[in-house]
Design goal:
Elements: E1 13-20, E2 23-31, H1 39-48, E3 76-81, E4 85-90
Antiparallel strand pairs: 1-2, 1-3, 3-4
């Protein structure tokens, strides 16, 4: 997906779900319309002070997980933007 393929990058629905032992413990959503900074501002900032090759700019999703759904080892977190795709990860404890 390239930026020119998105008709409106400020109108994307972002959904997050957490599953524990086969049961959904959390669902939340937001929209890129609620971003505090525009993508252009974020990319300009990175261009001024670039990081190492293959760096990733993380901005968070704007979705606040409730305390009772806080991640535990083995939980699966899925973040989906229909026009872009889905990211799924399993939580682990790192020593």
């Amino acid at each position: 997906m390239t930026p020119d393929e998105l008709t409106d990058p400020y109108n994307l629905d972002i959904r997050c779900a957490i599953t524990r032992n086969g049961a959904k413990t959390f669902e939340g959503s937001t929209s890129t319309a609620r971003l505090h900074r525009k993508f252009e501002t974020l990319t300009e900032s990175v261009a001024r002070k670039p990081g190492p090759a293959a760096s990733v700019l993380l901005t968070g999703t704007g979705i606040i997980v409730t305390e009772d759904a806080a991640l535990a080892p083995g939980d699966t977190v899925v973040i989906r933007v229909a026009q872009i795709g889905e990211l799924s990860n399993t939580a682990e404890t790192v020593a």
